[in-house]
Amino acid sequence: MLQSIVVPMEPHRLGPASLASVLSASPPSTSVSMPPINAGFKHQPIAPASRMPLPMSTPSPSSQSPGDSRREYGDDDMVMDGVNSDEPAKKKQKRNKPTLSCHECVERKTKCDRGRPHCLACIKRQTECRYAHVANLLEETTRSASTGRRMTKAPKKRQGADSMLRIPNLADRHTDEHGKSRGAVALSTGLLSTAPYSKTTSSNVFGIGSEHPFANYWTCGGGLPEVISVLPEKMQADILLGRYFECVDPIYPMIHRQTFYADYEHFWRMDERERKDVDAAFVAQIFVMIAMGTQFVTSSAPRERKQSAEFYASACNQALRISSYLSTASLRSIQAMVLMTYFLINDNHASDGWAFAGILIRQAYAMGLHRDPNIVTPNASPFEMQQRRKVWQAVLLQDTFMTVLFSLPPCTTHTDVSVDDLLDHGSSIASSDPTDMAYIRGNWTLANLVQETISSPRSLDLPICTTARHKSKLVADFRSVYRSFPDVFRSWDAESLTALAHTNKRVVRQTVWLTSNYFHNLMLVHASESPDVPPNVRGTLEAAHDAISAFFLMFQLLESEARVWWVINHRAFLEAVCIGNVLREAAKEPGGPEMLERDPVFVRARADIGRMIQILKSMVNDNEFAQARVEILSAYF
């Protein structure tokens, strides 16, 4: 019989001093002169180019008391039992299995998480971490296989009562006792799937942001000069752009700061006559960056901040219209549209953001951003190739992780751009911060795995894992992705990250964001069920705890920013919903109520929901949907 074994990973608590040493390798940036605004980023014209699930698996609690550290856990360590004792004893065979752990851990006989380039145990011991050549080959093979593209097969049609199946994932059932519809809490969760499109009357897609997102302040013949005229004074614009690069750019490092500021300063040196001929997409880019910077300003009242940000967003939209963004596209217009999508979502216009992202993806395809720059633009400079890759990964990341939150199909599925090609070039203008590049690669690798294995099946209400072997392999793939993250994003705890927040908030933001994203998706894998594979209850609760704890830490260290980011707020809410579903199902099992009171994992899970409710209550005045979320989570108690 197959048996699930939970193997906790011994975490490493890296102190502030050690963590600072990891970050000290970043080379200083150098300033360079840039060509005029009108010379680069030329527009490109677009060419037509009823079975019920089995009982949940509830392993006995581990003897190790739970802590704040992140662990590796899952149901991927499978063993076969039941060997017939009547058979004659066989000759013991010599072990012929390659050693996958590092040499240091093998010699010391300690647990190795097999992280690259350094395992956590070697980081803790401050020792050299070396792997056998065969181990490196197997690791690279596994990682490459996980990024392959496969088409998701549609489920076979079922007749009669069998067609009304429960949603095959604990995380998606919300408060509906029978688990047959996600629409009941769409106002709060934003997970209505495709229900509105089956109605004959008009319907708001995700139940939020029903009004048009862009107020019309513009005259028919005003053109670009009218839009430029509403730019704030340069000093104010500088402050808002600084806020953008402080709060937004660390999480979505898509715009090359050095070249942007060169063009930006050149723009302000132009006279009125020259400005009317400037690239309208660049003006749109400035306005959307100012709009997002305004969302994170703390010196003004929430209502005033919201009105100012929406005004700048309207100016961005008008500049895009003037640039004919529906028939032409450039890197600048794509960048502006990516940021506009995030702005709309933060502004409680998730439906508009989803629709706007659809246009964005079509334009990115039309520009050929999904193709390897070495093939479609062989004569481009290293910097332009690098920018094309970074912009494509921004589009792919946005699409993939929005589909996870909305349970809708991914669109950025056809590409030959490889994450391995996103390397630092020797040219000073093409180089970027090494930590930023590692962060981009980590997100990109995770998105490639999530897109096919989670987004596609969930969009059709298919099980993420159909067999125990499939689930074991998928958890192993996620572990492989996690091991590929740089040490700075893996070897931390709340204490070290709190200390780092005083010196390097950029890395703090990236660490919290990547951690939340990774463990949220791992939670979905563990919570998946099928007729042959029950959900892994303990793995689900552990992953949900690690994911929601990242949000709690961000709320503690960067509260004003955590209140603005809809994505991480909503992700944490869904994690609390998933925890509530697990607790509700566990309470139905024999001895369930007693287990909820005594098992430390379940006690901690209830505490996570309670803390999420407290945070949401503190946001009721600023967020019109916080109260609805409080009511949904309170129902689990």
From TrEMBL:
Source organism (scientific name): [Torrubiella] hemipterigena
Location of region: Disordered: 23-100
UniProt KW keywords: Metal-binding, Nucleus
Keyword match Nucleus: yes
Any one GO CC term of the record: nucleus
Pfam family name, one: Zn_clus
GO MF annotation list: DNA binding; DNA-binding transcription factor activity, RNA polymerase II-specific; zinc ion binding
Protein name per UniProt: Putative Zn(II)2Cys6 transcription factor
Localization in the cell: Nucleus
Gene Ontology terms describing biological process: DNA-templated transcription
InterPro entries found in the cross-reference section: Sec_Metabolite_Reg, XnlR_reg_dom, Zn2-C6_fun-type_DNA-bd_sf, Zn2Cys6_DnaBD
Gene3D superfamilies associated with the record: Zn(2)-C6 fungal-type DNA-binding domain
Occurrences of domain Zn(2)-C6 fungal-type (ranges): 101-131
Low complexity biased stretches: 23-36, 50-67
Coiled-coil intervals, chain numbering: none
